[in-house]
Design brief:
Blueprint lengths: L11 H24 L3 H22 L5 H25 L4 H23 L10 H28 L4 H22 L3 H24 L10 H32 L1
InterPro entries: DUF347
Keywords: Membrane, Transmembrane, Transmembrane helix
Pfam family, one: DUF347
């Protein structure tokens, strides 16, 4: 059976779930590592194994399945956060250097993807090779976004709230450039995708971190649970709409 496009349509629901998933990546990693006391290394092993299993399932599907796709995205978000945390905390790499490293890694992934497939469009993810490039790019966008978000909020001491405002403003500017100035759709998508990671990370830290650290003090448990519940509700809604659309087409 031929493979159908494996990536959902880029709608408002797509961006909402994406931002929520990035927030869960930030707070979820902190919850498992700190609150559950697995530590950074233990959390990295657990989430790496989970991601490998779910990603294998995602690659085996022949079409877009909402719950599989978004579960993969959430786990990639957590692992991307952990990759950056390991590099900074365990290997002693500075945030500016980590940001630069992941920017180069993402650029190299895009270059290899384009050289192989002659496109970076997410609307044509219908071969396994393209999907592997896609998920590699997604992983590096999460790692880069984590490093850039931490650099802005902590390294440059801008704070979580102002970091969220800045990254939201940048996303708004990219959106305006795309719809108002007819900027290249693929370029605009990937820039916005990268920027949603530090936006989500800043929102996650703002909600979960204690007041003396610049947050609202909700904690990682409440923040992660709340955002996961919203993601679940949206994925259920998307799945129901997809099935309803299939029934209508069949009739």
């Amino acid at each position: 059976m031929a493979m159908l496009n494996k990536v959902p349509e880029v709608t408002l629901a797509f961006w909402v779930i994406k931002i929520l998933a990035t927030t869960v990546g930030e707070t979820g990693a902190d919850f498992i590592a700190v609150t559950m006391n697995f530590g950074l290394n233990g959390t990295s092993i657990i989430m790496g194994v989970l991601l490998a299993g779910v990603l294998a399932l995602q690659l085996r599907t022949r079409r877009y399945v909402p719950w599989v796709y978004w579960l993969t995205t959430v786990l990639v978000s957590v692992v991307g956060t952990l990759v950056t945390d390991n590099m900074v905390d365990n290997l002693g790499v500075t945030l500016p250097m980590a940001t630069a490293i992941f920017a180069v890694a993402l650029s190299a992934t895009f270059a290899a993807w384009y050289a192989s497939e002659r496109t970076l469009s997410i609307h044509s993810i219908h071969t396994t090779r393209r999907e592997v490039f896609y998920w590699a790019a997604i992983l590096f966008t999460f790692a880069l976004g984590t490093a850039a978000g931490d650099l802005a909020a902590e390294g440059l001491q801008i704070g979580y709230a102002w970091s969220a405002v800045i990254f939201a403003g940048l996303i708004a500017a990219v959106t305006a450039a795309h719809f108002g100035l007819k900027a290249n759709a693929i370029l605009a998508f990937w820039i916005a995708y990268i920027l949603t990671r530090p936006l989500g990370a800043s929102l996650g830290d703002l909600l979960s971190q204690p007041a003396d650290a610049g947050g609202l003090g909700l904690g990682t448990v409440v923040t992660s649970g709340l955002f996961l519940a919203v993601i679940l509700a949206l994925v259920v809604w998307l799945t129901a709409n997809r099935r309803q659309g299939a029934v209508v087409q069949a009739s």
